[in-house]
Design brief:
about 90 residues, about 0% strand, mainly alpha, globular
Length: about 90
């Protein structure tokens, strides 16, 4: 399976410089984050494991960020799950 075939990231995938290909925001963008919460609603540990893959790929490509900034960007948001109301808005 290639990145292009990966249903989990079929939209709002990372592009150049780890910016979202669809909205130009830092990736993972808010839409991708919400979609991940829908896929992993009660399993933040699995979601973190999934996102560590991207963190590890992105870190060398983002030398301007400290290790903590990379961690916060790719994993830190998982500590703040969205409310049910925000999830329904997807």
């Amino acid at each position: 399976m290639t990145d292009e075939d990966d249903d989990l990231s079929a939209s709002h995938r990372p592009g150049d410089n780890w910016l979202c290909r669809d909205d130009g925001r830092e990736w993972p963008c808010p839409i991708f984050r919400r979609r991940m919460w829908v896929l992993y609603p009660n399993d933040p540990h699995r979601l973190a494991a999934f996102m560590r893959h991207f963190r590890d790929k992105a870190a060398p490509a983002l030398p301007e960020l400290t290790a903590k900034q990379v961690e916060d960007r790719f994993i830190g948001w998982i500590k703040d799950p969205p409310t049910r109301r925000r999830l329904r808005a997807i």
